Amino acid sequence: MQLHQIAGNDLLLDVRNLETHFYGEDSVTRALGGISFQVKKGETLGVVGESGCGKSVTALSILRLLPKLTARTVGGQVRFHGRDLLELSDREMRKIRGDQIAMIFQEPMTSLNPVYTVGHQIAEAVQIHAKASRSVAMEKAEEMLRLVRIADPERRVNNYPHEMSGGMRQRAMIAMALACSPELLIADEPTTALDVTIQAQILRLIVDLKERTGTAVMFITHDLGVVAETCQRVIVMYAGQIVEQANVIDLFARPAHPYTQGLMRSVPDRRRGRQPRLPEIPGIVPSLREPIFGCSFAPRCPFVIDICREKTPVLRDVGSSHAAACWRAEEVMGA
Amino acid sequence: MTLLSAPVEYVPTGRLRISDVPRLTRRHPLVSAGSGLLALLIILALAAPLCAGDPVNMDPFKRLQPPSAEMWFGSDNLGRDVFARTIFGARISLMVGLLSAASAAFAGLLIGVIAGYSRSFDNVVMRVMDGLMSIPTILLAIALISLTGPGIGILIVAIAIPETPAVARLVRSVVLGVRERPYVEAALCGGARLPKVLWRHILPSTIPPLMVQGATVCANAIMTEAGLSFLGVGVPPEIPSWGNMIASSRLYLAMAPLTIFAPGICLAVTVLAVNLLGDGLRDLFDPRAKRRR
Amino acid sequence: MATYILRRVVSTVAVMVMVGVFVFLLLRLAPGDPADIIAGPRATPEMIAGIREQLGLNQPLAIQFVHWALGILGGDLGTSIFTGRPVLELISQRLEPTISLSLLTIILSVTIGVSFGVLAAWRSGGLVDRILTAFATLGFSVPVFVVGFFLIYLFAIRIRWLPVQGYQPIDHGFGPWVVHLILPTVTLSVPYIAFIARIARASMLEVLSEDYMRTAAAKGASAYSMLFHHALKNAGVPILTVIGLSFAGLIGGVVITETVFNIPGVGRLVVDAINNRDYPIIQGVLILVSGLYVLINLAVDLSYTLVDPRIRY
Prior knowledge:
The structure holds three protein chains of three kinds.
Chain A: E1 11-23, E2 28-40, E3 44-48, H1 55-63, E4 71-80, E5 83-84, H2 90-96, E6 101-104, H3 118-130, H4 134-147, H5 153-156, H6 166-178, E7 184-188, H7 196-213, E8 216-221, H8 224-230, E9 233-238, E10 241-247, H9 248-253, H10 258-265, H11 306-310, E11 316-319, E12 322-324, H12 329-334
Parallel strand pairs in A: 3-8, 3-9, 6-7, 7-8
Antiparallel strand pairs in A: 1-2, 1-4, 4-5, 9-10, 10-12, 11-12
Helix pairs in contact in A: 3-4, 3-6, 4-6, 6-7
Chain B: H1 21-27, H2 29-46, H3 48-51, H4 82-117, H5 119-133, H6 137-148, H7 152-179, H8 182-189, H9 194-231, H10 242-249, H11 258-285, H12 287-292
Helix pairs in contact in B: 1-2, 2-4, 2-11, 4-5, 4-7, 4-9, 4-11, 5-7, 6-7, 7-9, 8-9, 9-10, 9-11, 10-11
Chain C: H1 2-29, H2 34-39, H3 45-55, H4 61-73, H5 87-122, H6 127-141, H7 144-158, H8 174-208, H9 211-219, H10 223-245, H11 247-260, H12 266-275, H13 279-307
C-alpha cells in the first residue's frame, strides 16, 4: 500500500510500516501500529493528533532515540536517502543525528543542559560533525544565534540556559539543530510550552529559516492552526495509526476522516466570533495495551456503522493526493 | 512548563497487616532476604548454648588445630573452639547492634521531634548535632570509651551517640515537612492539643524513614562494635565477640586462617542482612527510589 | 555570594566551637581528677598539686576552656602524658603514612567509584549493573579489617606478591612506598568505592532521564560524551557532597586499616593513646580531624558553584 509515490530523487524520508512497542512491567503498548509516510526534500509536513497518539514516538523512532529499556521499534523501515536507518550501526546513526536529521523538542526549559553555556552546546554539534576546532565552532555558534535573531549574540553565546527566557532558549535550540544544515528538521511541538506571542515569533522563525535553508521540516503539533500556517502536507494520527493524509488545502476544505473533522470543530474560529462552547470529541482514546478490533476511532465516531467495529479500515485514496482510513470517507467528505 | 519533581519525602503508605506479609515478601525480595538471614542469625545466637560447645574453655594441648569433627572450625591460639566462639559471638554483635540502634533511634526521634517543633531548641541542639557529626564515629566512640574503660554498657552508649545526630536530622526534616501539611494545620485549627497532634499525626510519618535509618544505624553499629573490639577498646577481651576473635588471632593468619575468616564472614553476612533489610524497607516506603534503582 | 560564604564560615566556626567544648569536657568528664590522670599512677600528691596549678584546674571551667582553646589556636595541643612530648609534634611525626593512605584511598575510590556508578547507570537493569550493584551492597557490608586480612592472606601469604604489612616512607623511594600501600589502599577503598558507586549511580540515573540528555543524543553525541560530559557534571553535586561527608568515615577506616597493616600513622597513635589513657593525644587528634572534616565540607559546599552554574549564593 503505497499511496502517491513520490519520485525517487525528490524523496528524502520514506517510512514504511513503522511499528514501535513500549514495554511495561507486564504489558506491551503498541504505540505505533505500522505507519507509512514520506517526506519530500524541502517540504514541510505536519503531523497532527492528540497527545499520546504516537506523534512524538514517530519522531523518536526515526532518530532511534527511544528509551532503550522500555521501548523498541519492532518492525518496518525508515529509509533516508534510500538507506534504512533502522539497520545502521550506532556509530553510523550518530553521524546522521544532528548532521542530516536534527530535532527540536517541546520543552526549551529542560532540553538544554543546565551546566554548559548555550554557545558551548551549539558548538558541540559543529565540533562533532564538521570536526571543527573549538574556536571555529564557537564562531559558528555565534553566527547561528544571530541567524535565529537573538539580540547581542556575542554576549549570549556565553550565557547559561537559566539566564535566558523560554523563547530565547527555543531559539537557541533551533540554532543548535540548524548548526550543521540538516536536510530534515523534526520539530516536536516546538511552540507548545511557550507564551502565545512568543509562539508566533518562533513559528515565523522556523518558516523563515526553512525558506532560507531549504531544509525539510516534519512539524509535530496538536494545533491545527499551526499546521495551517506552516505546512504543505499533513498527516493526522490517531491511536498509533495514520488516519488521514492530504495536502493542507484539501485537508481543511474536505476532511475525509471523522476524527479530523472532530479536531477541526474543536478549533476556535475567530471569524465566527464568540461561540457558546466548542464541540469536543466524545469518549477517550483507546488503550493501546489491548488489541483493537475494527477501527480504533469507532467508539467515538458519529459515523460509525457495523463494519467499523469488525474490520480495520486501511488508508486509501479518496482524492488526488488525499487518503483516509475510514470506511465512510466519501460520506464524511460530503457531510 | 514541566512538572517540578517533588522533593523526596516519606509519607505513610497505609498500615501493614500480617495478611499482607506473604504478598509483600514475594514483591520485595530484598526485605525477605534480609529479614530471613537476620532471623536465622538471631535464632542461631539464641540457641548458641544448644548447638555449640564451650566458647571459653582453653585447651593448651589443642592450640591452632585444623578443622575436625570435634571442632568444626578448628581451634585458636589458646586452644578454644572457633566454631563455638563464632556462634556465641553472634550474640554480642546482634545485641550491641540492636541495642545501639534502638537507643540512637529513640534519642534521635526525641531530639528530632522537639527540634522540629521548637525553634530555640532547634538552633542550639542542631549545632551540637553538627559538632558531633564532624567527629569520626570510631574516634568519638574511642574517646567516650576511654573515659571508663571497656565494657558492654559504655560500648552501646559510645556507639549510639555518634549515630544519633543523623537520626535526629532525619526526624526533624520529616517533622518540618509534615507540620506544614493541611491535615496537621486542620487538626491544630480544629483545637487539637499539640501533644496529641504530635502523637497522632506527626509521629506516624516519621516511622517509615526511621525504620530505614534504623537499619543503617544497626549495620553501622555492628561494624563499629567489631572495629572497636578489634582495636581492643570494645567488648572486654574475655567475652567472645567477632572483633575480639579477629584481634586475638591476627598473628596466626597464615597458620589458621579460619580463626579470622569464620568470624569475619559471619560479621559480613550479618551486616549484609541488615543492609539488605534496610534497602528493602527503603524501596517499600519510597517507591520513587525503587524506580531509580 | 559573599554573605553566603560569611554565613557558612560562621556556622563552621560554631561547629568547631562545639567540637572544642566536647573535646575539652572529655578530659573533665573522665572519672577522677584530670590532674590525677595526667600525672599518671606513680605521681606524688605534690606533683598532682603542681599539675593542677600548671593546668589552671583551680580556675572556673569557662576560663579553663578559653585558655585551652586559645592554646589550640596558637598551635598548642597540649603535652602527651605518656611520652611528655608536645602532642602536635607526635601527630606531625605520624602524619606522612596517614596522609599517604588517605590521599591514595580518596583518589582510588573516587575514580573507581564514579566509573562504576556511571557504568551501572548506563547499563541500568543489565548484567553489568546487577554485578556492580551487588558488589556495592557487599562492599558496603564487609568490615574493613575483614577485607584487609583477606587481601593479606591472598596476596601476601598465599601468592606472596606484596608485603604483609608495614610502611616505607616515600624518602626511601617511591617503589617501596607504593608497594607497601597497595593492600592498605585497596582495603580502605572497598567501602568507599561501594558508597560512591551507589550515589553516583543513583544521581546518574536521575540525570540520564532528563530531556537535555535526549537533546545531546539528537545532536549525535557519543555514549562517552553523553555520560562523562553531559551527565556526570550534572550529577556532580550529590557525588561531591557524599565524598565530603564520607571523609569522617574514612578517618575511622584509617585507624582500623593502620592497625591491620601495622602502619605507624595517626590512627595507631590514637589506639596506643587509649591503652595508655593518654587523653591529650586523643583530644588533639579529635580536634585536628574534626577541623579538617569541617573545612573539607566547607570547601565542597563552595565548590558547587564550579560544578553547577545555576547555584549562586
